[in-house]
């Protein structure tokens, strides 16, 4: 390795749910693994989050956490999660921390998840200072492949203020999806100020398991209680669990087909009283767990999976061969419903509206998923048509972006050229 290590920072505001953190953590692992070979430089970095990560979240070597004082959304307004201070004071504290770390750690690459200026524009001044103090730093806005309804999203972009300022602070936009499934530009969700800087990476699907802690047991034998005669299992997951109670209640009451067990994973953010309700409703062949380390592996091993339609769970499903039924939330945002509808149209999953959700409806869909091999093959065919290589593409984009300013060796450019097919860099017209 030559020169000093590349410094990478990944920021997410993390008010509700685990999606932003899980996405950035997967990216951190793949950047740490791939960038040294692409740039001939070691990598070190920070994962900046508003959540206190549990043991199931494993950092790559050379990375550390920076945990900001938490925020929560109450009646549409961000408030302190735990600190007994005003939200204005909390904003000052978070901005001060961000300003200090960006100034002193001085990342070569900063990846911001979803909200370019963070909560209440807490990143705006720190970003401007980073630009002045470290002009070679590169700043990327990472976006899910679905944001929300165009009207809602455009209002959010408009609230950011001057387009020229946004263009000065953000070098590129990486969309973690496949434009053939959902095109932000075509739907009107894309930020107009940055549209010409957008690149579709493909879904962050294949390779997510390297960011996961393992519980040391194979899924089926552990659940069957008999390693010599393991039963296949059905898996229901509600992601982080903060808004999945309707699905969890219905799933817990499902009559499990003979020869199968059912694992219901509520997510760590489900309220304790609600978790107790779900556990009490579960039948004798159903196991209810708060979390299950190694979720992508368990999805691979399941006979069928029922899930909400958050980005990370969906990408884990797309990387598997497991038949899947998505039951997306439809409030307060339509993001999950839009995603699930687009993927059903692509033939990659099945869809059940939350208005049609019941234990009986889930039982009917399970009968099809477990008994109709043709339906399973149809989903697998749909998935194979999608770009699922985002975790390979992102380090290539990062190396190319950094090469413009950091004088990375020519071996990096050669490597990029040889991976042109994997990169499939897609320019979105203005």
UniProtKB/TrEMBL annotation:
List the Gene3D superfamilies. Glycogen Phosphorylase B (3.40.50.2000)
Alphabetical list of InterPro entries matching this protein: Glyco_trans_28_C (IPR007235)
- Taxonomy, superkingdom: Bacteria
Transmembrane residue ranges:
none
**One Pfam family, short name:** Glyco_tran_28_C
A GO molecular-function descriptor: hexosyltransferase activity
PANTHER family cross-referenced by the UniProt entry = SLL1722 PROTEIN, UDP-N-ACETYLGLUCOSAMINE--N-ACETYLMURAMYL-(PENTAPEPTIDE) PYROPHOSPHORYL-UNDECAPRENOL N-ACETYLGLUCOSAMINE TRANSFERASE 1
- This chain's protein is named Glycosyltransferase
Query: What is the protein's species of origin?
Result: Actinomyces oris
